[in-house]
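Fold it.
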Amino acid sequence: MVKRKPNAKFMAPVTPSDELAEVVGAKPIPRTEVTKKLWAYIKKNGLQDKKNRRNINADDKLKPIFKKPQVTMFEMTKLVSKHLS
């Protein structure tokens, strides 16, 4: 079995936008960490929809990123990408 090498591009640090920095911090971190921190924030603040757990309800910090009151997990990833450089 060949051990997979981690994708360097995937692990490269990215800089969050000012809006995203409110949630994940301002210093450059890999995309994987951005996602982890975002989920930690969502869980800590109970932002997962009670009926449909795949939906995330935006609070005041997430509204500037999502641009609407609720997004799916899949939309979230796409919208967060726009806030990374």
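Residues 16 and 26 are 6 Å apart (CA to CA).
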